[in-house]
Amino acid sequence: MKIAQAWQLGIGNKYKMPVPRHRPTSRRPLWIIVLICLVCISLIGAYIYPPQHYPACYFFSSSVCTPFKDWFPAMPTRPLTDDEMASRAVNKDILSLPSVQSKNPKIAFMFLTPGSLPFEKLWEKFFLGHEGRFSIYVHASRENPEHASPLFIGREIRSEKVVWGKISMVDAEKRLLANALQDTENQHFVLLSDSCVPLHNFDYVYNYLMGTNISFIDCFQDPGPHGNGRFSEYMLPEVEERDFRKGAQWFSVKRQHALLIVADSLYYTKFKLYCRPNMDGRNCYADEHYLPTLFNMVDPSGIANWSVTHVDWSEGKWHPKAYRARDVTYELLKNITSIDESYHVTSDEKKVKTWTPCLWNGEKRPCYLFARKFYPEALDNLMHLFSNYTAI
Ligand SMILES: *[C@@H]1O[C@H](CO)[C@@H](O)[C@H](O)[C@H]1NC(C)=O
Ligand SMILES: *[C@@H]1O[C@H](CO)[C@@H](O)[C@H](O)[C@H]1NC(C)=O
Ligand SMILES: *[C@@H]1O[C@H](CO)[C@@H](O)[C@H](O)[C@H]1NC(C)=O
Ligand SMILES: *[C@@H]1O[C@H](CO)[C@@H](O)[C@H](O)[C@H]1NC(C)=O
User: Fold this and answer.
1) Which of 199, 171, 191, 297 is nearest to 248 (CA)?
2) I need a labelling partner for 20 at 20 to 30 A (CA). Which of 48, 180, 221, 382 fits?
């Protein structure tokens, strides 16, 4: 019965003839027979050549329509704004760019720091012998750094004040990306802090980042107060609560994604205005939500959902564990480099913990290339151990 109804609404406005109820007689007019034949032929035709549009299915949610669901795209629930249309066009083109666009691909190491970098000597050990395969950028937001290594001299970009948790943090990240993008040989862009150290040798890091087409952006859904609790309805309609994500700030992105971040103004503006400390009595930190949410919306399969920079939140405090000189042992570094599952915990009362294997091109591998936070006093121990713990 429903087939007939749906069929009538969908195709045959012309054929809304009542079916005769009286018993057929030999004197039935010829046109009824012709009509019935026409109906049969069109039914068979509709079965053999499925229609591309089947509007009746929008009105009948019956199981009749289920087999037809693949025939038409889901109807957009609301018309897109001009800005969304423009943003989709730009993002689509950026994402379809070839993955490596340089003969001599380099990795851009972008340091976001208040001032001097305490581990320049360690980084120098990491970089030496690999000239031409990396470039360094330093955004020093508070004071001019003093350099311990010639590799860092003259690598500062113009900086502005950065306030923890405010949009100025995202602005500094965008400024570093925009500077590093000027060099067309830079193909991968790593954001690092003054307390970050390398966990592997340069070749390992280079092959890990260049050998895959994904960006390492931490991203997970947290229904608790430190996740979706920070979502503001002012972000609607472009950002819905179900799109809202959380993740650590320390990203590593491929060139297409770096371009996309620099080009985005629609979502950036939403977070600038409505994800900030003391927003309607709640605290939202754009550096923890903007990029995870953006990439969850525009290219979810293009990101790994974990960050290659390790940090230890297991003490459950406001700040992660920071390692002193005495903590830095061969065993600690081996422990961190052997982790091959990323860990997330929700901030609601359920405290749901998830461990996800770190899959690199489908193969389970150690998750981390860098680690934080280390006190400057840890430098000597790290220098002493570096060749050992990075041997493989
Ligand atoms: C990356 O994507 C390109 C196509 O865009 C493909 O040719 C290449 O094999 C991919 N590389 C890896 C490591 O998956
Ligand atoms: C990251 O998560 C999204 C959805 O949460 C998923 O679509 C995507 O495949 C994940 N990325 C990888 C590399 O598994
Ligand atoms: C290293 O990991 C082992 C096993 O998980 C643990 O018992 C040990 O305390 C860890 N050592 C350090 C220095 O973190
Ligand atoms: C470095 O590794 C070698 C060989 O595994 C070992 O003999 C040496 O004691 C290690 N050095 C340090 C400082 O751990």
Assistant:
1) 191
2) 48
329 vs 23, which has greater pLDDT?
329
Rg (CA), the chain: 29
**By percentage, how much of the chain surpasses pLDDT 90?**
69
Distance in angstroms (rounded) separating the CA atoms of residues 24 and 168: 82
- Of the candidate CATH numbers 1.20.120, 3.90.550, 3.30.70, 3.40.50, the domain formed by 62-72+80-308 belongs to 3.90.550
Strands (DSSP E) found in 324-366 = 341-345, 353-357, 359-360, 363-364
Ligand 2 cavity residues, CB under 6 Å: 214, 300-301, 303-305
Complete DSSP assignment for 85-117: HHHHHHHHHHHTS-S---SS-EEEEEEEESS--
- Minimum mean pLDDT among 32-46, 149-163, 186-200, 378-392: which range? 32-46
Considering every ligand atom shown, identify the ligand nearest to the alpha carbon of residue 362 and give its number: 2
pLDDT in tens, 203-246: 999 999 999 999 999 999 999 888 888 988 888 889 999 999 99
Q: Indicate if ligand 4 lies below 6 Å from the C-beta of 329.
A: no
User: What is the best residue among 328, 329, 330 to mutate for testing ligand 4's pocket, by most ligand atoms within 8 Å of CB?
Assistant: 330
Comparing CA positions, the residue from 259, 261, 247 lying closest to residue 344 is 247
* 212 Cβ inside 6 Å of ligand 1: yes
Ligand 2 centre and the CA of 295: distance in Å?
A: 10
> Average pLDDT, whole number, for the chain?
85
Q: Which two tokens stand for residue 368?
A: 């981390």
- Kindly report the pTM of this predicted structure: 0.81
Of 78, 249, 247, the residue nearest 170 (C-alpha): 249
Is 370:198 a contact under the CB 8 Å cutoff?
Answer: yes
